[in-house]
Design goal:
The chain is of the alpha/beta class. The protein has 10 helices and 11 strands. The chain has 2 domains: 93 residues, 2-Layer Sandwich (Ribosomal Protein S8, Chain: A, domain 1), CATH 3.30.1370; 134 residues, Rossmann fold.
């Protein structure tokens, strides 16, 4: 059966090519010159135009020289947009900083960005269960900021001391998207998801003892969360969570102060006291 595309207004049928083109750059195949062949890699120089976010370089398994070459190619393709390297060990981070003057580094998250960071739009709150989850949380926070969102951090509020989480509930509610990072039993995203209606992406970490199976236990707990509105990234994938949360936050509408359905008025005593008369 031939495929037909019905236009949103009016009557009749329009051509598929015309309709697809009208959907914008994301729906149109990239031209052949939208990548640069470097021999050891093909830098996706057209990704920014297609998706709104530039290609990110995964440093693990690459040499420092390869990473510097990739950064140079991507910076040349979009000089007004930062280029980011993740999973970059200390020697690689040092090589990138030496090669490019305008660099921002987070040693905890093993990430580095080259170029000016964009103006923040929306707010992402990164919540971590314990100090052992700090590296994944740092990666997520850094990625969200480089991808254009403002970022706040809430640290060490795991369910073993749930009162610590209750103390920051206002911070959670103020965010446009939450990233919740936890290892061990992976219970924190469910606890947070039961306290707020903010979109939430959970990140299991590989932190834990034997039966945690390198984060599999936390992953399964998060996938089976009873709290609605929880989505889950792969184990230790702070990068994926940061990208997702930034995209949500960037599209969030500015909030207006909430008005109570039943606004409180000053209480009036049923039997107001009057000055006692002198006898």
């Amino acid at each position: 059966m031939p495929l037909r595309v019905v236009p949103p207004t009016g009557t009749g049928v329009t051509s598929i090519a015309r309709s697809v083109t009208g959907l914008g750059p994301c729906a149109v195949p990239s031209p052949p010159d939208s990548f640069q062949d470097l021999g050891f890699a093909r830098a996706d120089t057209g990704r920014l135009a297609r998706t709104g976010d530039a290609e990110v370089i995964y440093g693990e398994g690459k040499t420092a020289e390869q990473v510097v070459t990739l950064v140079s190619a991507l910076r040349a393709a979009h000089p007004d947009h930062p280029v980011m390297v993740t999973r970059a060990a200390a020697p690689m981070r040092a090589a990138v900083v030496d090669a490019f003057a305008e660099s921002t580094v987070d040693d905890d998250g093993q990430v580095v960005a080259i170029g000016a960071l964009p103006q923040a739009r929306g707010e992402v709150c990164v919540v971590s269960a314990g100090t052992s989850d700090a590296a994944v949380a740092a990666e997520a926070a850094f990625v969200a900021r480089v991808f254009g969102a403002g970022v706040t951090r809430v640290r060490d509020v795991g369910v073993a001391g749930v009162h610590r989480l209750l103390a920051v509930r206002d911070v959670l509610d103020a965010a446009d998207c939450l990233i919740v990072v936890a290892g061990m039993d992976g219970a924190l995203p469910s606890a947070v998801g039961g306290l707020t209606g903010v979109p939430l992406v959970a990140v299991p970490t590989s932190v834990g003892y034997g039966a945690s199976f390198g984060g599999v236990a936390a992953l399964l707990a998060m996938l089976n969360s009873c709290a609605p509105g929880v989505v889950v990234c792969n184990i230790d994938n702070g990068f994926g969570a940061g990208v997702f949360a930034a995209r949500v936050a960037r599209r969030a509408r500015p909030r207006t102060p909430e008005v109570s359905v039943h606004p409180r008025t000053p209480e009036v005593s049923v039997h107001p006291r009057t000055p006692e008369a002198a006898s």
